[in-house]
Amino acid sequence: MNAVHAHDPRPIDELCACYTCRTFSRAYLRHLVVAKEMLAATLLSIHNVYTLLELVRQARLAIVAGQFEQWASSMQPGD
């Protein structure tokens, strides 16, 4: 709902490959949220689920490679 995003053409996360980030801008998503459109919740959920699945995929790869502790340490905020 932050007005600073009212004209922001960037996706939620420029590195994310989800449908929402590949297709919609922050400005459009903000518009949907402000207008209380149901599509806002759907698109934001798509992004959130994709992000969580990607996190789990990376964790699995780190476990298989025997590097989970290093990977988990790299995920700490501020690092």
Q: What order do the helices and strands come in, and which of them pair?
A:
Blueprint: H1 19-23, H2 26-34, H3 38-64, H4 68-74
Helix pairs in contact: 2-3, 3-4
Report what the structure shows.
The protein has helices at 19-23, 26-34, 38-64, 68-74. The mean pLDDT is 93. The protein is built from four helices and no strands. Helix 2 (26-34) packs across helix 3 and helix 3 packs across helix 4 (68-74). It is an all-alpha fold and 79 residues long. The radius of gyration is 16 Å and the shape is elongated.
Would you kindly provide a brief summary of this structure?
With 79 residues, this protein is an all-alpha fold. The protein has four helices and no strands.
Structural class: mainly alpha
Number of beta strands: 0
If helices are DSSP runs of H or I spanning 4 or more residues, what is the number of helices? 4
Our measurement of the CA-to-CA distance between the termini, rounded to an integer number of angstroms, reads: 28 Å
Largest sheet descriptor: none
Cα-based radius of gyration, to the nearest Å: 16 Å
Strand content: under 5%
Please give the share of residues in helix: 55-70%
Which runs of at least 5 residues are low in confidence (pLDDT < 50)?
none
Q: What does the overall shape look like?
A: elongated
Q: What's the overall average pLDDT, rounded?
A: 93
What string, H for helix and E for strand, traces the elements in order? HHHH
Essential attributes:
mainly alpha; 4 helices; elongated
